[in-house]
Specification:
9 strands; two-stranded antiparallel sheet; TIM Barrel; 11% strand; 7-stranded parallel β-sheet; alpha/beta
Length: 338
Amino acid sequence: MFTSLAGAIVGVVVALVLFTACGNASGGNAPATQAPPVALPSPTGYYVDPDSPAAQQQREWQAAGRTEDAAAIGRIASQPVPLWLTADTASVAAQAGGYADRAAAVGQKPLFVAYHIPNRDCGSFSSGGAADAADYAAWIRQVASALKGREATVVLEPDAVPHEVSGCVGDAASQRKTMLSDAISVLKAAGPVTVYLDAGNPGFVKDPAAIADALAASGIAQADGFSLNVANFWTTADNLTYGRAISDRLSGKHFIIDTSRNGNGPVAGDTIDGGPTFCNPPGRALGQEPTLSSGEDRVDAYLWVKRVGESDGACRPGELAAGTWSPTSAIELVDNGR
């Protein structure tokens, strides 16, 4: 099945290339014919980017005759993954708007991760973010302006709420709660935007009551729900139990689960090969493919929120910076998930 799907995707791309070439061949001074946007089938209605790193890798391997590898990577290339919004305040509207435009051109809906909270990742491998609360308020308004009137889904600030509970933001926790509440309000006012405030994973803050209280203080009442397991590896079963325990304390709030890499579950312990087990652990596998029909109470979707095949960070010598595409890691996830 994967081989035929990959071949179909490559065939669409090749056909478009040939169409453009033929349009330019006959008339030396004729204007170039612009190829129409490529629309790849979407199992969820979310945008499947034909120029994602996985899609580009698939075309490269197909052209090089690596048909088996191209077919394997097609399992990733054929699925929707979000655009992680990390550009600065001056650039993020263009980043979000351009992606939303491409999705709209093929009749699909954009999926985003807003990831720019001050002291992001508490200085760890994905550190960065806005300079301060005022910068973040301006940033989220730029995002909202780009999405105004559009249908879109935003996963809001992975790990930001769990970091409130863990204490890594210290006295700034109350300010972070205000920032997140404001962000939800601003995004919801932009139009038909669905917002899921991130709640971490079952291995981070293990007390569902504590995370539910923090979500409540951070504006979850205004959001459509919360997200779990973003860029992590906990099994779907573990997330269902944890999510329902949180939801029970939040009047039945719905949630989504990132299943991008949880096929083999997490690695036991805190470290492996000198790096933390949450960062590029070996032996992981793809999980449940994206779907809006989970069949589970209060679970709106299983989604691949982490961009599959991209590094979690330089957590061991020789590993890539966070967000960098790694075809080796991508193939390992596919092979282990067969």
